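Last lecture ended with a question: if I hand you only a sequence, what can you say about the shape of the protein? Today we answer it with a concrete record. The protein is Glycosyl hydrolase family 31 C-terminal domain-containing protein. Below, first the input exactly as provided, then the predicted structure, then a couple of comments.
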Amino acid sequence: YCLLPYWYTLFHYAHTTGMPPVRPLWVEFPKEEGTFTEDNQYMIGGALLACPVVEPGAQTVKVLLPGCAEIWYDICSAKAYKGGRSLSLPVNLDTVPVFQRGGSVVCRSTGSGKCTADYQELPLNVTVALNSQGSADGDLYLDDGHSFEYRDRKAFCLRRFNLLSGRLLCRPATGEGRFDCETVVQSVTIMGVKNKPSRVNVHVSGADTISASFEFLENCCMLTLNNLNLRVVLDWEIQIN
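The predicted structure:
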């Protein structure tokens, strides 16, 4: 359920481009023949790779991480793995190996609710997975979640998150759509950060620059920014120094 914002964005693109939300590996990696016969794994959009456990009583699972130039992050541990290899990972009844692709941004709901309408009111966490160039980007689609206003009155918004050279931007991804909502980005998690920053500044369009609190976990190279409370429909940027 926490991935509903990401799923909703994928279904927007399924509606507008025909690209399916769930894809076999060869759709994203058509030049790698090893992906052609891989039936036990799949991509969720272009950002997440899932490897469900399909054998009863299995204690390990083999995971193919395609793309020699790719970096893949375990979404539970934030541990980074180079692509172009297979891994053997321990699993149990509570384990479903999922990896986020370097160079991607995935939005998740934080907190809990009883139905999808509840989750639409929850704040977001933006998870950034850096590629080998230290950059990443991804989109977020929002509308009212139940009517056809997105079609009849263009009542939607499509936002883009882009991180390059330590600067994370939130900007419109398209000139179409007008939709206002109170959804906020509460936290940002960045995987693949090599050094602890000295400071992090946040600037919202039309407001003063403020300093953000952050936590850096050196053992897994993960930076977390908390208590941001940034409205997703506004333009803002985060500078990591």
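Comments.
1. The CA atoms of residues 186 and 229 lie 5 Å apart.
2. The longest helix spans residues 4-17.
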